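Sanity check

After download, print the first record. It should look like this:
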Amino acid sequence: MDPISQGAVGAVAPQVVLKPEKLRAVALLGCAAGLAPDLDIFINSSTDPLMLLEYHRQFTHALVFAPVGAAVVALLLHPVVRRSLRPRESYLACLLGYATHGLLDACTSYGTQLLWPFSDYRVAWNNVSVVDPLFTLPLLCLVILAAVLRRRAFAVGGLIWALAYLALGVFQLQRAEAAGALLAAERGHVPHRLTAKAGFTNLLVWKLMYEHDGRFYVDSIRAGLKTTACPGASIERLDVDRDFPWLDPGSQQARDVERFRWFSDGWVSVDPGIENRIVDMRYSVVPNTIEALWGIDLDPLAAPDEHVRYISDPTARLEHRTRFWELITGRDCR
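Expected structure tokens:
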């Protein structure tokens, strides 16, 4: 999730466990440790644009690495709080804060390698958006109150809020997937796989994707008091031999396509509007569209050892914001 959420969750975990008079110090350490795993964003390459995708949310986010990462953070920051905390208390605060990071990231749909090095499976529970103010702001306020007033009850309240919100996300996800299965059945489709993910900043509008007969169907489900389908579009699943007959299977570009396919959990297709571009279907500003936020560009004239080009367009243009608001209000749903 976003850094504010990660820091707040990292801070609240040790606040709940340690003594009230130490809440300020442990909040500082927990927050720092909760942010630390994202230092993996500095693992990148000027020649290999997909290296960041491979290493972000990899070993620094793995459960087995948490004790090591926590020890590094505690070693660096204990001198700052040595008058308030003993070394083992500093380590415990950092361990609790650090361990929350990968688990919270796994609640999103991006994918987190919690089981590294035993598996490269990208865990994605899909029950919360990568940014959700309704999750973050109440939690942040309660963490600050706990630290300022030295009242553990506020920290407990913050933890309860966070867990309850994530549980609500699981409930909403199940509703969205059930509505999606019904929508597919109405179309006479038997999905090969079906998934839903929380729309940006909310648990009301969900992006629904399913695969049937070689095509991806992208719709939206508005899960209010009742679930309502908001029909979208469909597109053919990527077939490298069909879509890029000129691509040398032994080239670096071909290997990069498979790396991007793994990162995107197989939800990849050719951009219908841009030649030689492969996109990640999981993310779009408007949930029931295939206007992807990122992808890779292939070059028919590239050298055999040349990488693909990674492209990203996360901006929400005016028409995107308008269409997204229509989904939130239900005006764009049947």
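If your output differs, re-run the checksum step. Summary of this record's structure: The longest helix spans residues 152-186.
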